[in-house]
Amino acid sequence: MNKMKVGIIGTGNIGTDLLIKVSRSEYLECGIFAGRNADSEGIRRARSLGVNTSTDSIRAIEEDPGCCEIVFDATSAAVHRQNAVILEKLGKFAIDLTPSKIGKMCVPALNMAECLDADNINLITCGGQAAIPIIHAIMKVHPDMEYVELVSSISSKSAGPGTRLNIDEFTQTTRDAIESFTGVRRAKAIIVLNPAEPPVLMHNTIYAKMDKPDLPRLRREISAMEKNIRKYVPGYRVTLGPVAENGRVTTMVEVVGLGDYLPKYSGNLDIITCAAVNMAEAYAGKKRANRIGGKL
Amino acid sequence: MNQLLFFDSTLRDGSHAVAHQLSRENIRNYCRQIDTAGLHVVIVGHGNGLGASSLQVGLAAVADDVMLRTARKELKKTKLGAFLIPGFGTIKDNLQPAIDSGVDLFCVATHCTEADVTRQHIEFLRRKAKDVYGVLMMYHRATKEKLLEQALKMQEYGAQGVILMDSAGASTPDMVAETTAYLSAGLDVRLGFHAHNNLGLAVSNSLIAVRNGASIIDGTLRGFGAGAGNCQLEVLAGLMMKMGIPTELDLYRMMDVSDSVVCGMMKRSQEISSISLISGVAGVFSGFSSHVKKASERFKVDPRDIFMELGRRKMVAGQEDFIVDVAMYLAGRKGMEKESYDIESLL
After folding, report:
1. Three-state SS for B11?
2. Which of A189, B33, B103, B126 could form a cystine bridge with A174, CB 3.0-4.6 A?
3. How far apart are CA A25 and CA B22, in angstroms?
4. What CATH class is the domain B274-340?
5. Edge-to-edge strand order for the sheet containing A120-122?
6. Chain A within 8 Å of B319 (Cβ-Cβ)?
7. Could you give the CA distance from residue A167 to residue B186 in angstroms, rounded to a whole number?
């Protein structure tokens, strides 16, 4: 069976983690791994895996458009704003892992089907991927909830230079996406980089403000959502709650990484790269089905 | 030597001491009275800065823009300041609105090893021609070499000064002398020091910082602030007067405002409780105190043990949700039926 070719732009933590996940995939293979830094550890890793690499970033794909059908963009929000235009022109399915907010916002557990029809999908942020499905589950039970707050802490070591340089978009995009995705009236996102040694797991606390929570139903919905997410993010788990006190419901979620590129504490990398690879595989599956259908 | 600048955090750090319940009246009275005292800036807002009013660290009684506009009307000679920790607030939701409310000077703060998350905010504020200072919190957690590397980043982004924050009041006099001498020699911009009084050293550590090259002192009137409180600015002013160190501070004015306005805002006198003392010994953010007390009562754990454990885990501000985790761990209850716990309010 032919695997669908993907391109990865950005050779930092996220790009390299994607590379390792793609190289394990039954449906995908990496056609080009492109960045700007010839000495990056990611580029070295790609070469050792025998993957075609380039330091020309997006130009490598412009010059050889046949090298891939799907492009993961793991650069930065500002760079993706330029890349998005080029990728659209080239007719590539773009999976954006920066907090640029350009493409259709995507949480695989919630809107995979619609996203497969878009040209450019945005994976929001790691905090968004972790929390939005839970908040969505809470809203299903309590659609009139007025306020929700997410505190997302990630270990300093797992936040690479790209994440740090985009901390503002990271915070803003997470908040905006919670509101637009779940319909909650008001959301707040707090992002904390935790310098503790040994590094802490990615940890998310969700406070939902409400007076009369239906805890049994909340438990059922949240637990069902957790199972759904674990299908593509195996290390995802609810560690506390939902518990009610003082007019709010608290739920805590942790993500243990697969340990592909960075160690297991980097669940923040995994949740977004797992979601991205999941979408790419679904896209490849859909294309193949269409092509076979076309021949018949 | 550069003219010494005094940053007044009474209405920002003091906010921690009253669970962020300062009223518009408090802010109006304070700013009206303090304006002629010779301070460089009065910093106003939630204890954790712009955008920090939250269930996680406490809801403020008054919205950011209302606090800032109230202060703006009263401050004629003194700059109006605001504080931001990237990750709590954003450019769009918080910095631009603060500029629109008339803020002149911003302090952009982060944990002492994470300076690169302040780049976007410092650069944005410089482009808007605002005064900007970088703040390295919990400075005792890093070596002086690491601190200089981080401070130089802030300088490169455009900060006009870098303030070391002794968030846990964990400094010994020797640490202050060594660190401030090293950083002031390595920086082109001003160096500042923000002390906490957990070990009873806030005023003397501030003086030591000045003697070793710091030219900004950040403190509060009456020491009003988180935990054991801050460097009591009027006491430092009196001490400097006695030592013949020139300042533009009006000592009597500061004393009068301290007695007539700040006293009325305080819910308790600013003493060093055993909890504050242990947080200084453990090197844990003093703003955790009220959260630790709540968790210790709920889980029947000695709050001193919680502080020591938080210190071992190197917890930083913003991680108030972990305090319950630690208390549960110490109580030996974690790993049992977690769902059955009703966690107590952290606020």
Report:
1. helix
2. A189
3. 56
4. mainly alpha
5. A53-54, A28-34, A4-9, A70-73, A93-96, A120-122, A104-105
6. yes
7. 27
Residue type at A52? N
Pairing of strands A120-122, A93-96: parallel
Is the domain of A138 the same as that of A152? yes
Looking at domain B5-265, which CATH architecture does it have?
Alpha-Beta Barrel (3.20)
Domains of chain B: which residue ranges?
5-265, 274-340
CB contact under 8 A, A192 and B319: yes
- DSSP β-ladder status, B216-219 and A120-122: unpaired
Same domain, A280 and A244: no
In the sheet that A147-155 helps form, which strands lie side by side, from edge to edge? Answer: A186-194, A147-155, A202-209, A248-255, A236-245
Question: Taking the CA of residue A85 as centre, how many other CA atoms within 13 Å lie in the half-sphere pointing to its CB?
Answer: 4
pLDDT tens, residue by residue, B94-146: 999 999 999 999 999 999 999 999 999 999 999 999 999 999 999 999 999 99
Q: Which residues span the domain enclosing A230?
A: 126-265
Using one digit for the tens of pLDDT, what is the confidence trace for B52-95? Answer: 999 988 899 999 999 999 999 999 999 999 999 999 999 999 99
Rounded to whole angstroms, how far apart are CA atoms A258 and A234?
Answer: 8
What letter does residue A76 receive in the DSSP assignment? -
Q: Is the Cα torsion angle A7, A10, A16, A21 positive or negative in sign? A: negative
Written as one letter, the residue type at A110 is L
- According to DSSP, the β-strands at A248-255 and A53-54 are unpaired
pTM of the model: 0.89
CB A120 within 8 A of CB A94: yes
- Write the Ramachandran bin of B32: left for phi over 0, alpha for psi from -120 to 50, otherwise beta: alpha
The CATH number linked to A138 is: 3.30.360.10
Q: How far apart are CA B230 and CA B219, in angstroms?
A: 6
Inter-helix orientation angle A126-141/A167-182, to 10°:
20
Number of domains in chain A: 2
Cis peptide bond prior to A234, omega within 30° of 0: no
Contact B254, B234 (CB under 8 A): yes
Please indicate whether residue A126 is annotated as part of the active site. Answer: yes
Structure token pair of residue B84: 């931001």
Rounded to whole angstroms, how far apart are CA atoms B279 and B281? 5
Residue A248 is nearest to which of B55, B89, B92, comparing CB atoms? B55
Q: Which of A126, A145, A151 to mutate to probe the B interface, most B CBs <10 Å?
A: A151
Q: Which residues of A199-216 are buried (b: 16+ CB within 10 A; e: fewer)?
A: bbbbbbbbbbbbeebeee
Tokens 């590379």 -> residue = A19
Name the residue type at position A217.
Answer: R
ipTM score for this prediction: 0.86
Pull the structure tokens for residue B308.
């020591």
Task: Tell me the residues of chain B between 152 and 211 that have a Cβ less than 8 Å away from chain A.
Answer: none
